[in-house]
Design brief:
- The chain has helices spanning about 15-25, 30-40, 45-50, 85-100, 105-115, 140-150, 165-195, 200-205, 210-215, 260-265, 295-305, 370-375, 440-450; strands at about 65, 105, 130, 140, 215-225, 230-240, 240-245, 280-285, 290-295, 305-310, 315, 320, 325-330, 335-340, 345, 350-355, 355-360, 365, 400-410, 415-425, 425-430, 435-440, 455-460.
- With about 475 residues, it is an alpha+beta fold.
- Strands 7, 14, 18, 19, 20, 21, 22 and 23 form an eight-stranded mixed β-sheet that branches. A four-stranded antiparallel β-sheet has the order 6-5-13-10, covered by helices on one side. The protein has a three-stranded mixed β-sheet with strand order 8-9-17.
- Helix 1 crosses helix 7 (about 165-195) and helix 4 runs antiparallel to helix 6.
């Protein structure tokens, strides 16, 4: 039952489209909805009391839109608790968004009356008052914005300057995860003091890291000495994957030549797909300039292909620096896969935005081919005679992902605008600040004829 029926617009309170578009995708992320709404995993009232916030509720919630609810900039006079909790503001925004999506107003006030016997009920004293209003009225996320600007870990995003949506996503998820963990730790201490709960399962429940459970995956990095074949592996976590959309000859680390380097050195690349076959000529509908047509699959292929490092690396076996190749694969797939298309090239002079069209599937993005066993180059494979038939590579397991939402960017380096596309209840919606319209799948996938370029893609792993 705790599912949004329709998306709700979020007012732009001054160059905050970077925040609004990302928050829209997070609000309609099913695992996060289950945590905040279904499981009440971070009750803002309880967290506020644990932090000593006024009335146990922290800052005021979001405000309904319209002429009387115009957005305003956060000021020092806004009612912020001493210890701002971004997770509390997200919990309140979830409740307000859910209420607006089903036609209920003042959800926060109605819920607070449950805990306060002096608050008016439904006329019989049995429950809160939920006032009906029109479904889908937009909200003003001023409280969340104030918390973001006040939070020390996100202070670099404060102010009315334009900011990058990907930078906000990374900082927001880190901060959200930290605040959720902190609440779990506080509740665990309170319960132990009050009721002396020492059950193992209770401890594990409170220490659960929700953001990592949902968004975290693991990359496996393999360094291979080109002289002796010694392999060194290491693992690192990620909450999103950044994919280059630069022309291959200009890609960082000469990634575009990775397949050529691998073939010339004898590497065997299972499930190899030629990324160049996904590149087609096209014309930018805005500037009229020619541009390439890529695909997310070709970008992932290049990301997981071996590359010859520009500098030699010390090899313990050779006892000297030797030519070394590096390859990244995905050893752990996340529940929610966020792909970032690196459209802003800051390496050149002047900096520029890459407007090349990148196609992506609405359903069935198969990530199984990028698992280490099926993707890593095997330099130690025994060579076959020239006239011998090479056996076909083993079939990789299917790990399908379906598109949940996306963040698009319109404009250039100096100015632009972010919008979001959401799939809710099997239907697509286009969210442009406070305005929400029905959209067809084709316009989501092609960026309305190329007027918008996909920047962030949110995929959910199919059960």
């Amino acid at each position: 039952p705790w599912r949004m029926r329709v998306p709700v617009g979020l007012y732009n309170v001054g160059n905050t489209c970077y925040m609004g578009s990302v928050v829209q995708c997070l609000l309609h992320c099913p695992p996060l909805q289950d945590f905040f709404l279904g499981a009440v995993g971070h009750d803002h009232s309880c967290c506020g009391r644990a932090r000593g916030a006024p009335d146990g509720d922290g800052a005021a919630g979001t405000t309904g839109g319209g002429p009387d609810g115009a957005p305003h900039a956060p000021t020092s006079a806004d009612p912020l608790p001493p210890d701002v909790c971004v997770a509390c503001e997200m919990d309140k925004l979830y409740l307000e968004t859910f209420g607006s999506s089903v036609g209920m107003s003042d959800v926060l006030g109605a819920l607070s009356s449950l805990a306060d016997p002096n608050q008016p009920g439904d006329g019989d004293g049995d429950g809160p008052v939920f006032c009906a209003h029109k479904m889908g009225l937009p909200l003003v996320p001023s409280s969340l914005l104030s918390a973001v600007w006040t939070c020390p870990t996100m202070a670099h995003l404060a102010g009315y300057k334009q900011h990058d949506a990907h930078e906000f996503l990374q900082a927001f998820l880190d901060t959200l995860g930290r605040d959720i963990r902190k609440f779990g730790t506080n509740m665990k201490k309170i319960r132990k003091r009050a009721m002396q709960f020492k059950k193992k399962e209770d401890s594990e429940k409170e220490s659960r890291d929700v953001i990592k459970d949902i968004f975290e995956g693991k990359l496996r990095s393999v360094l291979v000495c080109r002289a002796c074949g010694t392999r060194r592996t290491m693992s690192e976590s990620f909450l999103n994957i950044s994919l280059s959309v630069l022309p291959e000859k200009n890609a960082a680390g000469d990634k575009g030549d990775a397949q050529t380097n691998a073939a010339s050195s004898g590497d065997v690349m299972p499930n190899q797909v030629n990324s160049s076959s996904d590149v087609k000529d096209g014309v930018d509908p805005v500037t009229g300039n020619p541009r390439r047509r890529l695909s997310v699959t070709s970008c992932l292929n290049r990301f997981t292909s071996p590359e010859l490092l520009a500098d030699k690396v010390h090899c313990a076996s050779c006892r000297q620096k030797t030519p070394t190749s590096k390859q990244m694969t995905i050893s752990k797939m996340p529940r929610i896969l966020v792909l970032h298309l690196k459209r802003f090239d800051l390496t050149g002079t002047p900096a520029k935005k890459i407007t090349d069209f990148v196609s992506f599937p609405a359903a069935g993005l198969d990530m199984g081919r990028y698992l280490p066993h099926w993707r890593e180059a095997n330099r130690t494979a025994s060579p076959l005679p020239a006239d011998a038939a090479r056996p076909p590579p083993p079939e990789h397991p299917r790990v399908p992902y379906d598109l949940l939402g996306s963040v698009d960017h319109r404009g250039g380096m100096s100015s632009g605008h972010y919008t979001a596309n959401l799939r809710v209840g099997g239907r697509w919606y286009a969210c442009n600040d406070a305005f929400v319209d029905r959209a067809d799948e084709a316009s989501v996938l092609d960026g309305d004829g190329g007027k918008r370029t996909a920047y962030l893609l949110f995929y959910g792993r199919r059960a």
